[in-house]
Amino acid sequence: MNKHRFLIMLLIALILSGCSLSLKNYGKVKMLPKGPGEVTIQDVIDNWEDYDIYYAGSFARYYGVRNPLGVMFDPKNNDTTLVGDAWEKVRDQKTLIEITQMIYPNTQDEPWLSEILGPDDGFYGYLYYSYGMVVLELTDNGKMYVYDLEEPGGGYSAF
């Protein structure tokens, strides 16, 4: 009886340690507070040339239709990189402004600016979005892979 109990406890410990080890490769988003002296979406838009900027949205890649769910800002002046298959490059400030203004009508939720942080809380960039869970995974080559954003209603924009 004690032998079985020991084996069960050992199995549970291995499962739990495996789960905690696998989370070490995931990043997170941290909502930025609003108020004086805080970074705002307008600050990021005003300094848009300091970032590689991408947006995700419904059928963006396949049909050229802009239904943005979020905008990702990857700083050019650091040693981190944000990547993702469902993200389209934003090439000018006018388009960036249009896209940020379209997020609320597409999601019916107010967007907010968040920091993208690595597993060690290192800064990777910003994400401006309004809805759903964001999955961020550190790849073998040190880049942060940002999965597609969830659409209101539970779908994903690339499907």
Structure description:
- The chain is an alpha+beta fold and 159 residues long.
- The protein has one domain.
- It has 4 helices and 9 strands.
- The strands form 2 sheets. A 6-stranded antiparallel β-sheet has the order 1-6-7-3-2-5, covered by helices on one side.
- A hairpin with a 5-residue loop joins β8 and β9.
- The longest helix has 21 residues.
- The protein is globular, with a radius of gyration of 19 Å.
- The termini are far apart.
- The mean pLDDT is 83.
List key phrases describing it.
159 residues, alpha+beta, six-stranded antiparallel beta sheet, 29% helix, 27% strand, globular
- Helical proportion, percent range: 25-40%
Q: What coarse outline follows from CA principal-axis ratios?
A: globular
Strand order of the largest sheet: 1-6-7-3-2-5
* Total DSSP helices: 4
Mean model confidence by pLDDT: 83
Biggest beta-sheet profile? 6 strands, antiparallel
Briefly characterize the structure.
This protein is of the alpha+beta class. 29% of the residues lie in helices and 27% in strands.
